[in-house]
Each structure stands twice: as structure tokens, then as C-alpha cells.
Design goal:
Number of helices: 10
Structural class: mainly alpha
CATH topology: Hypothetical protein af1432
Strand content: under 5%
Oligomer: single chain
Strand order of the largest sheet: 1-2
Number of domains: 1
Mean pLDDT: 92
Number of strands: 2
CATH class: Mainly Alpha
CATH superfamily: Hypothetical protein af1432
Low-confidence stretches: none
Helix content: 55-70%
CATH architecture: Orthogonal Bundle
Shape: globular
Radius of gyration: 18 Å
Order of helices and strands: HEEHHHHHHHHH
Amino acid sequence: MDGLWQFLTTTEKLKTELRHSWTSDSSRQESVTDHSWMLCLIAVTLLEEKPYEHLDKLRVLQMLIVHDLAEAITGDIPTFEQSKRKTKYQDELEAMHTILAPLPASTKDVLLDAWLEMEANETPEAKFAQCIDKAEVLFQHVIADIKTWDDGDYSLACWNKDEYFDHSPAMRAFKDYINERFWQKMEKAGTLNRLKPEHTARRDKSS
């Protein structure tokens, strides 16, 4: 019980660790736990659909619920802050070992293996989980007030890690739909001029 208490006390910090994205209520940013909850909700919804019925649902949820645990120690690093991401994997791996240390070995192994599997992005479950993670970020941007976007948000637009979705026609269609909603939001706001030329060209090519 002491070990479980220590683990939960550490990971509870994710409730107060803010991400770069804002919620639909523009008075506050989302927390890491806000993000993780939405990931799991999207996953359990899509996993009921035929294209994904072959996936191990429990494994997908394990990956999604632990994939940001390390941020209880490392904090969240936005994708566009490349200089801080050079040692991200190693820093987060060390944080995972620290966070999981109080747990029984069998439990620790299951959670760490889930984290490592998602990072490797090789199994069908990991690829699905990675897509959900990337798609949720864009979803959050679409429903947030565009006034909360800064240069970093525009620098990547909706094409960051877009290739992750190419492994599955269903996932590709899901991402294309979100991409278009993302673009429509910028068009409505009149902010397309803040995009990089290569992003505009890529959208034109995919249209």
C-alpha cells in the first residue's frame, strides 16, 4: 500500500501539469490528465468500429494511460520546442523508472512495457495509440479559440507526424477529416498567411 500511495501521489501531479493546448474554455489550458482522458475516450469509441476490432483493447488503453506518466517529473514539452526534445526519450525513460519504482515488479513491468511499446510504434496497437495521441492534439486546437494559438502552433499546422496515419485506410480517413476541420478553422479566422509555404502546398496537393 505504501508503494501504491507513493506512485499515485507522484502521478497526481499530472492533474496540475499544463500542456501547451487550451481547452474550449479559453480561460484555462488543458492538463496532461485532460489530454489522457480524451485519448482514452476516443480510443474506446473507435475500438468498437469494425476496422479496429482485431486490436487488443486493454493494451491500447494501457499505452494511452501511461504514455505521458513521465511528465509528472519532466513536464510537458510541446512538439515544436525541438531543442528541448533532443534528450526527451532518455529523460522520460529515466522518469518512468523513478515513477514505477515503488510498485511490485510485475505491475511495474506491465506499465513500463506498455510505455516502451508505444514509443517503439511497431505493433498494430501502438500505431493505433500513436494516431489517437496525434489526432487529439489537433482536435483540441480545432475546438479551442484560435486566439490561443501562437507561432508554434502555426509552425507545425496539421501536418506534424501526418505519416503516422498512413498504415491504415481508416486512420488515414480519420486524420484527413481532422486536417480539413483544422484548415477550415484557419480559413474562417483569416490566418492562413501564418502558415509555412510547404504546409499550404501540401494541402493543395491533397485536395
